[in-house]
TrEMBL record:
Name of the molecule in the record: ABC transporter ATP-binding protein
Domain annotation ABC transporter: ranges: 3-231
Keywords linked to the UniProt accession: ATP-binding, Nucleotide-binding, Transport
InterPro entries: AAA+_ATPase, ABC_transporter-like_ATP-bd, ABC_transporter-like_CS, ABC_Transporter_VariousFunc, P-loop_NTPase
SMART domains, sorted: AAA
Top-rank lineage group of the source organism: Bacteria
Phylogenetic placement of the source organism: Bacteria, Bacillati, Bacillota, Bacilli, Lactobacillales
Length: 243
């Protein structure tokens, strides 16, 4: 399975976000998406998830060798930086509701209680309103339901910023398992996190998607090189992916 971006373009009035940007993301890998503030990481995720349309170019999902431009919205799982949850429901009610409407898409048969416990939400909190959860607990619930359905593409927009050390470790383990079923793209500002978690690093720079040689991710000078590329307008891309 592949997510294929072919020469996509996106402008906001006079600001260019993507200019003929192309890249191919494959199942079985976690991709770390890095870029400076305002480079368009969240915009890219919104275009892939069809919350926003590109001005031109195509975004394709390849399944079993067949390329689909009109893929289903349910093919894309999107974990937002700020949790999008129904504040009027309890955690248990929301997970149960999610199971009921996605029963055909959920492989593992577990109860809402079992799912919530699996991400470290204690039983005493299961019947609390989601609006009363901390930001980190809300993010756990959001991450949980996104991983439950094993969408072909999983987009994670800065998902670990609100977790404590233990919770972040638990979420990392879940994300690593998810790559067996999904194309996983993980946006972050933290280079060390990308190095620890990701199989490949992709830079969003000069309105292009630039792939970095995976063999160099753990080199001692990798961080310095990436910082130089993202901060110096005159530095040439290390490698641009051809579709």
């Amino acid at each position: 399975m592949k997510l294929i971006l072919e020469k996509i373009n996106k402008n906001f009035e006079k600001k260019v976000i993507f200019n003929e940007a192309s890249y191919t993301f494959e199942k079985g890998k976690i991709y770390g998406l890095l870029g400076r503030n305002g480079s368009g990481k969240t915009t890219l995720f919104n275009c892939i998830s069809r919350n926003m349309m590109v001005d031109s170019g195509t975004i394709l999902l390849e399944k079993s060798g067949e390329k689909e431009q009109d893929y289903e919205d349910t093919d894309i799982g999107f974990v937002y930086t700020a949790p999008h949850l129904p504040a009027f429901m309890t955690a248990y009610e929301f997970v149960k509701f999610f199971i009921d409407i996605n029963r055909k898409r959920i492989a593992n048969e577990k109860t809402p209680t079992e799912y919530l416990l699996s991400v470290g939400i204690e039983e005493e909190d299961h019947h609390r309103l989601l609006k009363d959860f901390s930001h980190g607990m809300q993010n756990k619930v959001q991450m949980l339901v996104s991983l439950m359905v094993e969408s072909p593409v999983l987009l994670l927009d800065e998902p670990l910023t609100s977790f404590d050390v233990v919770a972040a470790h638990e979420m990392k383990e879940m994300i690593i398992k998810a790559k067996n079923k999904s194309v996983v793209i993980f946006s972050t500002h933290i280079l060390q996190l990308a190095q620890d978690l990701c199989d490949e690093v992709v830079l969003l720079h000069h309105n292009k998607l630039i792939g970095v040689d995976p063999a160099r991710i753990h080199d001692k000078d990798f961080e310095e090189e990436v910082i130089q590329i993202l901060s110096d307008k005159d530095v040439e891309p290390v490698q641009e992916e051809e579709v």
